[in-house]
Design goal:
Number of helices: 15
Helix content: 25-40%
Largest sheet: 7 strands, mixed
Number of domains: 2
Structural class: alpha/beta
CATH class of the largest domain: Alpha Beta
């Protein structure tokens, strides 16, 4: 079975324009269903929650439904484990600030050198209160994290290991379930940045057995908004940041300063609508009976299509003598997402997107807030990498257009 691209693209109004979007890791296009849900909330229930009158009750029900929908998306045990807020960077700052109050001077946190700075800087900032930060580095030969190296870093004082599920530069998928088991066996917690993973694969926080997980909705076909997952028992123990009269047991509210954004939260039900409709469109009578299982069906189709996109582009880049792919050079949906980075010998990375712009194709260059990784790879002086980041709504024809543009440049 193949993903019906004609039907898929109809759900994204911007795709009917003249531009081809290959900067999806920076922000995907938004579903009309998400926009419709946002409009529905603002136009028919835009009031404060918690009052006795009917529209306020409706607004509360809608926000609660949104939290339940996002719990289904990541397979959390309940919506109590879903904290929504303005951005992944902000959610990690809040988590670090609250969690660190359960730590003492001399405790240790391990971060990687291949993460987006959001999941590094929030933890490094804790050094000011006596927390020791260690760096788990990718190996220069494989550009991958190895558990043997993590073993050398961990000690009885290690409280947390923070890493990415998929690198926003390398595209590499880290074996989070295996790493989480390894970390837990040594008495520590794990915090995973899933921003670069969530648009491509279905998340299952219970199967992964992670303690904390974050993602950005604007990378997953929604608005500029974000989600933090935390195991309920951990969220209950942590002090919150909300007003003094918000109870310790009041989760997720004690972490949501100024409350959630009602309309953006409700808007994300549009993603649930989309995934359910795609399952019915493709599977017909064989459509799974529940939303979570429908999500599984659809993401399988998505990842298979994305593997084809990756294969087309990687085969081209690998054929060019002066081009070096940064990360795994073969398409394999088990090992990488379709976020593909490369450099070209003798060409500053900043010049390539400018020449692609005239073809109405959007790509980017730079460090993408993974500055430590770009510096480690020695690519800062070259302007970082050129990144082509695809998602399921992209087509092979679009990839071929990009390749034709590249042929005029290098």
């Amino acid at each position: 079975m193949f993903l019906n691209l004609d039907k898929v693209r109809q759900y994204f109004p911007t795709l009917a324009g003249e531009w081809t979007f290959f900067d999806n890791a920076g922000g995907s296009q938004s579903l009309k269903k998400v926009v419709d849900r946002i409009s529905e909330f603002l136009l028919s229930s835009n009031v404060q929650l918690g009052a006795s009158y009917g529209i306020s009750q409706l607004a509360g029900e809608r926000v609660a439904l949104a939290a339940m929908g996002m719990a289904t998306l990541i397979n959390a045990k309940s919506s109590q484990e879903v904290v929504m807020g303005s951005s992944t960077t902000m959610m990690l700052k809040i988590l670090a600030l609250c969690l660190s109050q359960t730590f003492t001077s001399g405790d240790e946190i391990i971060v990687t050198n291949c993460d987006h700075e959001a999941n590094i800087g929030a933890w490094v900032a804790l050094e000011k209160q006596g927390i020791k930060v260690k760096y788990w580095q990718i190996r220069p030969d494989t550009l991958e994290l190895h558990l043997e190296d993590l073993e050398l870093l961990m000690s009885p004082s290690t409280k947390l290991v923070a890493l990415t599920h998929a690198s926003n530069i390398l595209g590499t998928i880290n074996p989070i379930k295996e790493i989480a088991a390894f970390v837990h066996e040594r008495g520590a917690m794990i915090c995973v940045d899933g921003v670069a993973y969530a648009p491509h694969r279905l998340i299952d926080v219970q199967d992964l057995n992670v303690d904390f997980y974050v993602l950005s909705f604007y990378k997953v076909y929604g608005p500029h908004y974000a989600l933090l997952y935390g195991k309920e028992e951990l969220l209950l123990k942590m002090p919150g940041l909300n007003h003094y009269f918000i109870g310790q047991a009041d989760i997720p509210y004690k972490f949501q300063l100024g409350n959630v954004n009602f309309e953006l939260s409700y808007g994300m039900l549009g993603l649930c609508d989309y995934l359910s409709e795609l399952a019915q469109l493709h599977y017909g009578n064989e459509t799974a009976p529940d939303l979570r299982s429908q999500m599984v069906q659809v993401f399988d189709l998505m990842s298979a299509h994305e593997e084809k996109l990756s294969d087309r582009l990687l085969n081209y880049l690998n054929s060019k003598p002066g081009v070096r792919v940064i990360g795994q050079s073969q398409a394999n949906r088990e090992a990488r997402v379709p976020t593909i980075s490369f450099v070209v010998d003798g060409i500053h990375s900043s010049t390539i997107p400018l020449k692609v712009d005239s073809h109405y194709i959007g790509i980017r260059y730079g460090d993408f807030y993974a500055k430590r990784l770009i510096e480690y790879l020695g690519l800062a002086s070259q302007g970082g990498i050129v990144r082509v980041s695809m998602v399921h709504y992209n087509t092979l024809e679009e990839v071929d257009r990009l390749i034709a543009a590249f042929e005029q440049i290098f």
